[in-house]
C-alpha cells in the first residue's frame, strides 16, 4: 500500500504484526526455559535410578544371609546430583523373603526430589522349584 508522505504513524496491521512477533518470541523463550528444566530433572532422575538399581543388584549378588540391615549409599554417581544422598533398608517381608528399599534424594531449584525402588529377595529366588 502506498502512503502519502504527509501521513505519519503506523498502520494497524503493522502494529498487529509487531505484537504477534513479540508474543511469538516470548513464547519460544518461555518454552526453552521450561525444556531446559525438564531436561535437567530427567537427567538427575536417571542418575538416581541408576544408583538405586546398582545398589539393589549389589545386594542381590551377595549371599542371602548377609542381606541385612540399613546403610547409606556411597556410590560416586551421587556426586552428580545436587545435594545427592541415599539410603537402603532390608526388612523381612514374609517367610524366606526380604524386602529391600533403596531411596535416593537430591535437591533441585529449592525443591526436594527423590526416587524409591523396592524389590524382594528370596533365599532360592522368587520362584523356587
UniProtKB/TrEMBL annotation:
For this protein, the parts annotated as crossing the membrane are: 9-29
**Can the keyword Transmembrane helix be found in this entry's annotation?**
yes
Q: Which UniProt keywords apply?
A: Membrane, Transmembrane, Transmembrane helix
Q: What is this protein called?
A: Type II secretion system protein GspI C-terminal domain-containing protein
What organism does this protein naturally occur in?
Answer: Candidatus Woykebacteria bacterium RBG_13_40_7b
Higher taxonomy: Bacteria, Candidatus Woykeibacteriota
